[in-house]
TrEMBL record:
It comes from Nothobranchius furzeri. It catalyses: (6S)-5,6,7,8-tetrahydrofolate + formate + ATP = (6R)-10-formyltetrahydrofolate + ADP + phosphate; (6R)-5,10-methenyltetrahydrofolate + H2O = (6R)-10-formyltetrahydrofolate + H(+). HAMAP family: THF_DHG_CYH. PANTHER family: C-1-TETRAHYDROFOLATE SYNTHASE, CYTOPLASMIC, C-1-TETRAHYDROFOLATE SYNTHASE, CYTOPLASMIC-RELATED. PROSITE patterns: THF_DHG_CYH_1 (PS00766), THF_DHG_CYH_2 (PS00767). This is C-1-tetrahydrofolate synthase, cytoplasmic. Its EC number is 1.5.1.5, 3.5.4.9. Residues 101-164 form the Tetrahydrofolate dehydrogenase/cyclohydrolase catalytic domain. InterPro entries: Aminoacid_DH-like_N_sf, NAD(P)-bd_dom_sf, THF_DH/CycHdrlase, THF_DH/CycHdrlase_cat_dom, THF_DH/CycHdrlase_CS, THF_DH/CycHdrlase_NAD-bd_dom.
Amino acid sequence: MLSVVARPLGLGASCCRGSRRAIATVISGNKASKLVRERLKEEVEKMKVQFCGFRPSLVVLQVCVFQVGDRDDSNLYISTKLKAAAEEINRVLCCFGDVLQIGIDAKHVRLPNSATQDEVLHSIMSVNENQTVHGLIVQLPLDTVNHINSELVTNAVSPEKDVDGLSCINAGKLSRGDLNDCFIPCTPNGCLELIRQTGVSVAGKHAVVIGRSKIVGAPMHDLLLWNHATVTTCHSKTPDLPEQVGRADILVVGAGRAEMVRGGWVKEGAVVIDCGINYVPDETRASGKRVVGDVHYASANQRAGFITPVPGGVGPMTVAMLMENTVQSAQRFLLRSQSHG
Ligand code: NAP
Ligand code: LUD
């Protein structure tokens, strides 16, 4: 079996502490996501055989500027999602290597940046009513010239199709610990999966989350709490961030601040999960930029027991968890239709 955690040659994660420098074990999101996608591919194949060609179906709604050759962050994330689901090469301009396609029927619906709030809500309603679609996400942020209330938009997605887990119904269930009766947001769910891969149990640990957004920090707090960690959530007004970080057995960072968490803050042996995706200038690259996380990797991997890289850590797991939620939604749909008829 593929090993998701990779120990650097010759150095263990927990040995050599003290006089000799130790290097953290790397938790590969690329490998972990591949395992998830392989499992989902099998599940989708079984559904197809059992239910006469049935396929889970996902709609990704985007409000954006229409531009040929457009390749901003949102387009990159969406094309990664569409690729992981099934072949949909329309407008996908980037080159992907080894992408395992699951067999989900994924559609990209684009509305122009001139779309009004009512038009966006109307599109969501029509997908809500379409019985052949099992999952709907509205990619954020909305790139629009009009004022659109994104809270209203995410809450308009039917809770049964809300595979992003961002509607207040799903968020409320998660906050109350109803983990088996909701969709868990993809990034926190991916982080938990990566923590599981380390073999470190969450129950009884002190977890620290940096960030309290609806998409990363807040649901991560809830998920760790209901997996029985004692959780501290930090944000921009937390006065003593380094001290809080130093108490973490498990640290999850989603602040959007390039390399903010320094290695010296990190508790020896901690599990460090870095959600950050920040583009910083790099003249040595043809693109003129490179992606770094919210954790200063080079120093943190000298203290942590386990660490996720950026890229290749949380990002690919976000995509895999979207696929997982879509397959789960389709399974729930089949169960409902069986019980109705
Ligand atoms: P966000 O909505 O901007 O939220 C950032 C959070 O970090 C806020 O709660 C903010 O505090 C807190 N924060 C900002 N500066 C801080 C500081 N100096 N000290 C402590 N806390 C601070 O961002 P987001 O959507 O959660 O995303 C966070 C990062 O994760 C970004 O880099 C984003 O690109 C990345 N991301 C990655 C994935 C993935 O799949 N890998 C998915 C989603 C997001 P306040 O609440 O006080 O403002
Ligand atoms: N909106 C997301 N907005 C942005 N990185 C993602 C993401 C893949 N409604 C809604 O998908 O879950 C969402 N739901 N988000 N994000 C960010 C956020 C959303 C971020 C990164 C990746 C999805 C990803 O695959 C790769 C990696 O980290 O290895 C490549 C990173 C790179 O730019 O090279």
